[in-house]
Design a protein that fits this description.
Elements: E1 2-3, H1 9-24, H2 27-30, H3 34-45, E2 52-53, H4 57-77, H5 81-84, H6 88-114, H7 125-134, H8 140-149, E3 153-154, H9 158-168, H10 170-185, H11 192-226, H12 236-260, H13 265-277, H14 284-309, H15 312-315, H16 319-341, H17 350-358, H18 364-375, H19 381-398, H20 403-409, E4 413-414, H21 420-423, E5 433-439, E6 460-467, E7 470-472, E8 485-491
Parallel strand pairs: 1-2
Antiparallel strand pairs: 3-4, 5-8, 6-7, 6-8
């Protein structure tokens, strides 16, 4: 058995990262979600695998907190207000009422299951609700990872709705987990008044702090550019690096300041990212690349760590009931909560509701939340942790591998997506221009097949042509073909 210590942590950490990335490459062939592969790699290196022993729940909780802050902030930055505005209300209902209903429905099922003589779990009502609460949110890392790795579009504003829900529902699950732990340890009774009061405090302070810190971070980034006489005196690469560090520091300042005021730090971090992502930001593209890389590192580290944390042989004793709970959540708990939550929104059709029900992925967040009962020494906490881990694996295997195929079967795939990102070109927000793409058809070329023969947007100029896997610099003699994609710069 190998114990992680200060002497070997760098060696083991580097091996984990390299092995995880290389093995994760196989996920494109196997169809497994990439983050599930990292989780399995961590289990392979753990106690029941190569023998590396790691069982410090406090450290795991701290690392998970850091990772979740980065993941949620990055998810907020990539969320465009223009995209989520049409789905803001149903998304927020799913992330609050939907989480509450999932915890309640699944908790009652676990309580019923605990009363059966053939099961080996015996939870009272509140511990049953606690177990359900830790698993009640969809995992932002899993949803962002799977949706981000596939280039297909989704109809009916489904993608922004799912991203908004998964990015904003962790705070609700986190708050329910803490309230239920306190109720168990203090032996106090839950009341609707206490619950609503905690909700108002957590969401009120979290929302206000997130909006304020997001605005302040944007102002600070722009102020940094003006220090010393403006951006022209500083290397662009250095400016990008320094602003990225300011933003990263702001992420953790937002979380800690909000938590100290009694608010929900995770909600504040997500809203802060959303505020910053939708404001004028210097060197936006380079900073986004930095945050994307940091987010992937956070996801890899936390999934590898959680894989190390679990002992697979301990899950065997609860495998049967965990399987029943997982299947119930996938087929009953999540769908019922989604359909009930979306009842007022009649414009969301049945196929869309069904797909949203299926994309109830569990991942890092539920497992991290399951460490809180262990740290608080809640009776039966080890069983709670093992059940949550098993259900997470089940969700990633069943739902994670079938997200896109489910979308195709429900006829929700939109193949006419925007291809601007394929060119890898972006201008600073301060430059009064915008980028557009145009896919040529036979009709566009009916008057001729050169640039001067086709109709372009007013004040538009073609910067580049994409033909299959080739990128072509345009000139007046270049012959165009149907399905060519033009990258157009347009003066605002």
């Amino acid at each position: 058995m190998t114990t992680i210590s200060s002497e070997n942590i760098l060696l083991l950490g580097s091996l984990f990262l390299i092995a995880g990335v290389l093995i994760g490459k196989t996920s494109y062939r196997t169809g497994l979600p990439l983050l599930l592969v990292f989780l399995l790699v961590g289990m392979g290196f753990g106690t029941d695998g190569l023998g590396i022993h790691f069982n410090n729940m406090h450290d795991a909780q701290f690392i998970g907190m850091i990772a979740l802050c980065v993941i949620l902030f990055s998810g907020g930055m990539s969320t465009k207000l223009s995209a989520i505005r049409p789905v803001a209300v149903p998304g927020l209902v799913l992330s609050t009422v939907g989480v509450l209903l999932t915890a309640l429905i699944t908790g009652l099922f676990i309580f019923w299951l605990s009363g059966m003589p053939w099961t080996n779990i015996h939870f009272a009502l509140v511990p049953s609700l606690l177990l359900a609460a830790t698993m009640s949110s969809t995992d932002s890392a899993s949803v962002f990872g799977i949706l981000g790795s596939h280039k297909v579009g989704l109809r009916n504003n489904i993608r922004p709705l799912l991203e908004l829900e998964s990015g904003s529902n962790d705070p609700m699950a986190y708050m329910l987990t803490l309230i239920l732990i306190e109720a168990i340890m203090m032996k106090s009774h839950l009341s609707a008044g206490v619950l609503l009061g905690q909700l108002a405090l957590q969401f009120g302070v979290g929302g206000a702090m997130g909006a304020g810190m997001g605005w302040a971070t944007g102002r600070l980034a722009r102020f940094y550019r003006r220090i010393g006489g403006g951006a022209s005196r500083e290397d662009a690469g250095q400016a990008t690096a320094m602003i990225s560090i300011i933003i990263l520091g702001s992420v953790f300042l937002t979380y800690t300041a909000t938590t100290s005021l009694g608010g929900n730090g995770y909600l504040a971090v997500y809203i802060s990212g959303m505020m910053l992502g939708n404001s004028s930001l210097p060197h936006r593209r380079s900073i986004s690349k930095f945050m994307d890389g940091l987010t992937w590192l956070a996801q890899i580290v936390v999934f590898l760590m959680l894989g190390l944390l679990v002992n697979p042989h301990e899950m065997l004793s609860v495998a049967a009931v965990s399987f029943l709970i997982g299947i119930f959540m996938i087929l009953v708990g999540r769908p019922v909560s989604v359909f009930l939550s979306l009842l007022p929104f009649r414009k969301i059709n049945f196929r869309t509701r069904t797909f949203i029900s299926w994309v109830g992925l569990r991942g890092a967040a539920p497992i991290i939340f399951a460490t809180y009962p262990v740290v608080a020494d809640v009776p039966g906490a080890s069983q709670i942790f093992n059940i949550v881990f098993f259900v997470t694996l089940l969700s990633l295997v069943i739902q994670g591998t079938s997200v896109i195929s489910a979308a195709r079967k429900l006829h929700l795939v939109d193949d006419s997506g925007n291809t601007k990102e394929e060119f890898g070109v972006e201008f600073d927000d301060e430059i009064p221009t915008s980028l557009h793409t145009m896919v040529l058809t036979d009709r566009d070329l009916e008057n001729g097949d050169t640039l001067r023969d086709i109709t372009l947007p007013h004040k538009g100029l073609v910067m580049m042509i994409r033909r299959g896997d080739r990128y072509i610099v345009p000139d007046g003699k270049r012959r165009l073909q149907p399905d060519d994609t033009l990258l157009i710069i347009k003066e605002e």
